[in-house]
DNA sequence: GTGAAAGCGCTAACAT
DNA sequence: ATGTTAGCGCTTTCAC
């Protein structure tokens, strides 16, 4: 590995001049520039990022913290993040914080240590400690919190409008004439759950449908959970079912099919997330789509904006989505 | 951010002593150690990784280079990689090299610049330049090539035994009594394609079945490709079809079903990869599974071994897999 | 058992 | 337009 000193010697200049050229300074004679560039080329020289980081602080690196090892839903999103970051001249460091986010603090500290310029923080589960730490470091490092429902933390935040979109689904069903609209919600420990559920409630109200507790089932975020909820719900003869996630909806669909219930003939069904499996079920699942790739891009854009204007007031971005009608409605 | 100097001052010692303690030296008076540790605690001190990297070279970081943005098949594998790396005290840097691996060289250089201790390189498409570069840097950085069929490069390599496993599938079908076994291979540009196809040929030979060119179709690695191949193949009345990937097999399955061919009644079908969709098709697809998580762990283990013994001869690991019989056989 | 001093590769302030 | 100099925070001889 050759150093800036080697380049300087080969080009017959001082290392300051080389450094200036590397930094893109214009105050250089053309002939000097040429010689230095030739030397760089010849030696295959690349500046050490440690020395640079030590002097400059900035590293041109973004970190993405993701819960649960590589959940499939994040793939498109990551693609969006990396693409946009790359186009803006940033590298991306992806860290999965493990189930229950048990590595969150460890990775957070490590990223600070590595002086990343910005952090994109994902977590469905609210972690007070991490949030407090993020707020603490946000004076030095740009931070954007994703998918979390903030309560008072002074942090930027981007998330999908789970409430509004669920409401939209409910209203669609109501407009179609359904009155007995059931809801399969996830476990209560997540903010996302509560938020989407609120959308269900709002949708009922706006459609003038009275709430019926018997039409709501809570279930684990799995297909089994969805199947169980469908079984419990079926005795209530719903005309439509909205589920908090596609997995839940798919589980319900499976149970309904196996028990001779025709979808959408006997009951309508709408999921949430638009995971790839939706087009593989029979009938194919209607759902709410968030355009994950775009979410990723917006997240990075937001992060870069924060880096540019560190003193701006924290802002919250609510992202829309789309009702995708396939064959279960 | 406090520095080692702050710690030294607070503890009333020199920074040398602090550094020694950080490095785990035993030659320290107990009282000194206590004072220093207290100071570290109080200042929330974390050594700068730039200064460390500059002095030591090593960074306790591994890089994974992946082709095509977050292909689903890699998720389990990455989980294996990260878990094992973490347990061994390493951070993992994940870089997706984009479609056609167009960012390969860029990222490779960046990783070298960041002095990662090891690189896990994935790419189905052979890239001479990248391979040459990897060979070049392998004297300084541990490198393990994944999934590539090396030709003479002096590099460690881990890959799944595509040939042997395909052979196993063919022999299974032959043992079941099938004679007319067709094969859907991928496009010829990939080494993996050739390798798996060779397994088909070997399987036929070992089973004493003469090769029939009419029973082989080449197709793009998509469901559409698989469907087209199935259509072309059907006129040849095969008793069984083996496909180079699950996507191909699933496409074929779709076409067969839609054209009234019963699977496995009229024809047996086996895929390769065991992607999650396999259990979602009807009937569920029999396939060859590679235990991706384990592949990831083995890859890291191999990389760490190389780091320990930089002068060992390059080795090639061929990983086995498992024939998973579901409902298409 | 502890410290002083040199230097890793780079940038930036200050000459010239 | 180019060079000199002084560190960034750390580890590592080498003294004491």
TrEMBL record, chains A, B:
The keyword Transcription regulation is annotated on this UniProt entry: yes
Source organism (scientific name): Christensenella tenuis
Domain spans labelled HTH cro/C1-type: 3-46
Gene3D superfamilies, per the entry: 3.40.50.2300, lambda repressor-like DNA-binding domains
GO molecular function: DNA binding
Cited PROSITE patterns: HTH_CROC1 (PS50943), HTH_LACI_1 (PS00356), HTH_LACI_2 (PS50932)
Name this polypeptide is given: LacI family DNA-binding transcriptional regulator
Span of domain HTH lacI-type: 2-56
Keywords: DNA-binding, Transcription, Transcription regulation
Source organism superkingdom: Bacteria
